[in-house]
Amino acid sequence: MSQRKKAVSASQNKTQRRSQATLNEDEEEASFSQVTSSQVQRARENFTSDQLDRKVAEVVQFILIKDQKKIPIRRADIGKHVIKDYKLLYTDIMNRVCRTFEQVFGLKLVETDPKNHIYILINKLDPIQGEPVRMRPVTPKKGLLFVILSVIFMKGGVIKENLVWNTLKKLRVDPGEKHDEFGDVKKVVTDEFVRQKYLEYVKIPHTEPVEFEFRWGLRAEKEVSKLKMLEFVGELFEQDPQSWTQQFREASTQSTVDTSSQRTSS
């Protein structure tokens, strides 16, 4: 075959592959728009809450990786590479993904192209009226800290380190692996956050092998509103914050003390 014929053939093959890719994307998009409410309801019954939690975490991780390269995120790619068999629950999952980005990472997922369904992540830097800026993590690292503080608070103020690592793994943040955003996760948590007095990392006496536990540090006690944190957890689980009686009592006590201190200082 002559060089010219080879070039023409290669060009035709490339055009065919591009056309096939476009066709596949169109089919992918069509699968999202042809969903009925009865299909959604049946799908909700087919998956457990743990399965949905894992899928939400996978989507969050996929978007974070894409965002690191500042690559716009397409709905078709989310469906193809992450959502997969959960397409009927795409809206449910994405609502939870958006909530996670806003409340945990201080980021907002914005649809820049509604026609082609393309998203980007932006920082939520503008404070919400009436909400303390200190309660709004504006960096992923602060979001990581906020997750850990939330778990400690909800578990009674002190937890073994294994519970922290297992919680982070559910969010696809493995302390045993180098993370693209945080680097050495275990070092960030047990060294940086401890040095900053956000966390206490204490050896448990008489344990073999040696075990450690986490508590809130002095800076966290001073800077973080437990009442706001409980409201945040309540939103995530769609429950009234007062349903956690012990935590609500503790948070309300802290809020009262803080208010009294502010009046005294003024």
Short synopsis of the structure:
With 266 residues, this protein is of the alpha+beta class. The protein has helices at residues 3-33, 37-46, 49-68, 75-83, 90-105, 140-154, 161-170, 185-195, 218-223, 226-237, 245-265; strands at 73-74, 107-113, 118-123, 158-160, 178-179, 183-184, 199-203, 212-216.
Question: Would you write up a description of this structure?
Answer:
This protein is of the alpha+beta class and 266 residues long. It is 61% helix and 12% strand. The strands form 3 sheets. It has a 3-stranded antiparallel β-sheet. A hairpin with an 8-residue loop joins strand 7 (199-203) and strand 8.
Name the features.
three-stranded antiparallel beta sheet
Note poorly predicted spans.
19-23, 125-137
Strand content: 5-15%
The SSE order reads HHHEHHEEHEHEEHEEHHH
> How many strands, what sense, and barrel or not for the largest sheet?
3 strands, antiparallel
Share of helical residues:
55-70%
Mean pLDDT: 78
Gyration radius, to the nearest Å?
23 Å
Anisotropy-based shape: globular
What is the overall number of helices? 11
